[in-house]
Amino acid sequence: MSDQINSLEELSAVAEGTAEAVVEVSAPREPVRDDLGRSYATGKRKDAVARVWIKPGSGKVTVNGKDQDAYFARPVLQLILRQPMQVAGVEGQFDVVATVKGGGLTGQAGAVKHGISKALQLYDPSLRGALKAAGFLTRDSRVVERKKYGKRKARRSFQFSKR
To answer: Is the whole-model pTM more than 0.85?
Structure first.
């Protein structure tokens, strides 16, 4: 019973402000930049892995040494690359350099998008809320299912013949 009284007395002391309240406050996130003022992140989608560097600039996007229009010829893929910048409201303020390997063009575009989002969040932590709300910081973990023995594909069986 005396333990409860002590805790009630402590509670009332804290409420009155006479005792020091210990409250843990998470430290604000710090920007992560290298010596050249760039932020780096790795983006992934399906089998594609993208290494992405962003730095302040004119909004130029380079993928595997080519301009984004040359590498991702389809307008839909170019739109995918622009999404993180539009959501964060920093369109045309950062230069992006990305190297991407594996997968097809759609997976590679998704990987670069994921990498840009993560790098933006590291460069300016205040952008994290908008990017997270849009779902750009979450890796799309869907990958091709492996083929099983006794099956023609992952789940497709061989054609059944009664006779």
So the answer is: no
